[in-house]
Design a protein that fits this description.
Residues 34-167 form the DinB-like domain. This protein is mainly alpha-helical. Helix content is 63%, strand content 4%. A hairpin with a 4-residue loop joins strand 1 and strand 2 (146-149).
Length: 179
């Protein structure tokens, strides 16, 4: 398997100009299901497995799970900002550096799985309340200067969910860790 396939097991995110209500609902379902999918996949893993990188020079599964929790907490906050402010400039963060912090390298995976579980419950409750007006709300990412519509951000986080799930799932398959 080549490095691009290991980095992007489902391909890179491809932005659409618009999203139908059916696409938005499907994307919300993907986000909603992620914590349970991770819990089911990783439930019996040990520290050696959690400390295995999903690809050469990549994060360990432990770092990956902590990253997803960190990323989705930030996403939830960004949605709330976009709903309560007029096109706010969001705060970026250095995800690579966050993944190198001591808690991301050593904390129990279960902590972030449970954090993800509860953040997703709140986030999905919020997302499911959206109508066309909320889906059209926006925020600005200061690094790119680009304005993002919330329907696109939902699609991006559905992709992000599956992207990282596949990192762990495919690693498990390559190592015969799936029972």
């Amino acid at each position: 398997m080549d490095i691009e396939q290991l980095k992007y097991p489902i391909g890179r995110f491809v932005r659409q100009d618009s999203y139908s209500i059916a696409e938005v609902k499907s994307n919300i379902q993907i986000i909603s299901a992620l914590p349970s999918r991770f819990i089911n996949l990783l439930g019996g893993w040990n520290d050696e497995q959690y400390n295995t990188p999903y690809r050469p020079d990549g994060w360990t599964i432990r770092q990956l799970i902590h990253h997803v929790a960190d990323s989705h907490i930030n996403a939830y906050t960004r949605f709330r900002l976009a709903l309560t402010e007029d096109n706010p400039v969001i705060k970026p963060y250095e995800e690579q550096l966050w993944a190198e912090l001591p808690d991301a390298k050593a904390a129990q995976v279960e902590l972030s799985l449970q954090l993800m579980r509860y953040v997703h419950l709140r986030w999905v409750l919020l997302l499911n309340s959206f109508g066309p007006e909320e889906l059209a709300r926006t925020y600005v990412h200061p690094q790119s200067g680009r304005t993002f519509r919330l329907d696109e951000v939902i699609a991006n986080y559905a992709w992000h969910s599956e992207h990282h799930y596949q990192h762990a799932f495919q690693l498990a398959g390559r190592n015969n860790w799936i029972g």
